[in-house]
Amino acid sequence: MNSLIMRLMLSLAASLAVFFAAQTLMIGREVATLSEQNVLSRLEHDQQEILAAFHWPDPASTPTLDEDRIPVIYRRPFSGHYFEIHAGTHVLRSRSLWDEQLPALAHKTHWEVPGPSGQRLLLLRRSFDWHGSPIELRVAEDISVLKKNTAAFQRHLLVYALIAVLLLLVLQAWVVRYGLQPLLLIRNQLRQLEQGEIDRVTTNVPREILPLVEEINRLVDLVRQRLNRSRHALGDLAHALKTPLAALGQILDRQPPGTDMDQARMRLQEIERRIEHELARARTAGRAPGGKWANVYRDLCDITRLIELAHPKISVHLAMDDTLEIAADREDMLEIFGNLLDNAAKWARTMVRCSMRRNGSLLLIEVEDDGPGMTEDMAARVLQRGARADESKPGHGLGLAIVNEIVDAYEGRLHFGRSASLGGLKVCIELPQP
């Protein structure tokens, strides 16, 4: 269970269910007890009235009852109100019992017992001393309707408790969502941070969440600082290595041809290729937080002018929206387009075209030229480090390999084809966009 809201809701639902179930049972039991106490109180009152109508001058005589003083309910057959008087060997019963009799209770003053016509009786037994002679008075009342009403009350109470639980869950869901709103805001800001729309997460949050936000911002700053330091250090390293290597290359060029010199030149070229490749790969930022290329059209126009200056016979055309923004690191994208446009200009006859557009969650990049194109075997080979399609062209054979590694870092896809309009090579790149 990975949802915090779901955990809170389930925990609350379980707590409320246990609470209301226990409350319903307790209230139902209390209502049943109070109802029973009310019936017992009424039975005690009836006992007093029956004793007032009871006459037994002495144990040798026969006890009698003054019917006029007995409540009418005890004179109607099977009325649900009954009594029995045991005086010595004599037994006096209410007319309501008809031919039935009340069961005896062993060691109990009151209990539920079966009664006439399937009734359920609450029987109260009391023993009295009547002028030195013991008598026992049993009074009973039908509580079937009372028990039915009590059960109905408990059911209704349970339904009301269930409705209350549901209403409280709805209310609590709103309260939980309101309480977790700062976390939802942080989640949205993290998505914006990934897309490059913001540089930091806002700190206008409750104090319980503020340490988390500060740690996120500190991590973002640390990643950005390390990336900048890495790029600066790599730039310094490239400058420090290229100058001695260039001087060494000039020294080797002045030496007379020979097997040893040729091998030395080859080893020097391998070192240069290795350095260029590792520097380009190390400079790749990939999906760094806050990465965003805002001025795409302006930067590509600058690259286009440099390409046209380096290749005077080539015309480079851009087909893209001048307001396009890309969720990616600017230096990585400049590395991609610099390598693709320079590679296309080397092979083109007169024209290179670069197009870029958004297609749903993908950024589609196409670089085409009117050169000779490339076979499938050659296309697979040029993505390998140091491989070149034509040794007569200048370069180290690293451009497309570097581009491919940067595209992989962004979980994109690179493939080759033939340009339908220009007839040369078409390089297609698909980059995921949030």
Descriptive report:
The protein has 434 residues and is an alpha+beta fold. It folds into three domains: 4-149; 199-283; 291-432, Histidine kinase-like ATPase, C-terminal domain (Heat Shock Protein 90, 2-Layer Sandwich). The protein is built from nine helices and twelve strands. The strands form three sheets. It has a five-stranded antiparallel β-sheet. It has a five-stranded mixed β-sheet with strand order 8-9-10-12-11. Strand 6 and strand 7 form a beta hairpin. The protein starts with a helix and ends with a strand. The relative contact order is 0.07. Mean pLDDT is 80; it is low at 385-397.
Give the total of beta strands.
Answer: 12
Q: How would the global form be characterised?
A: rod-shaped
What is the gyration radius calculated from CA atoms? Answer: 49 Å
Strand order of the largest sheet: 4-3-7-6-5
| Helix coverage percent | 40-55%
How far apart the termini lie comes to: 26 Å
Mean pLDDT: 80
Low-confidence stretches: 385-397
Q: How much β-strand is present in the residues?
A: 15-25%
Give the helices and strands as they follow along the chain: HEEEEEEEHHHHHEHEEHHEE
Structural class: alpha+beta
Please summarize the sheet with the most strands: 5 strands, antiparallel
Number of helices: 9
Number of self-contained structural domains: 3
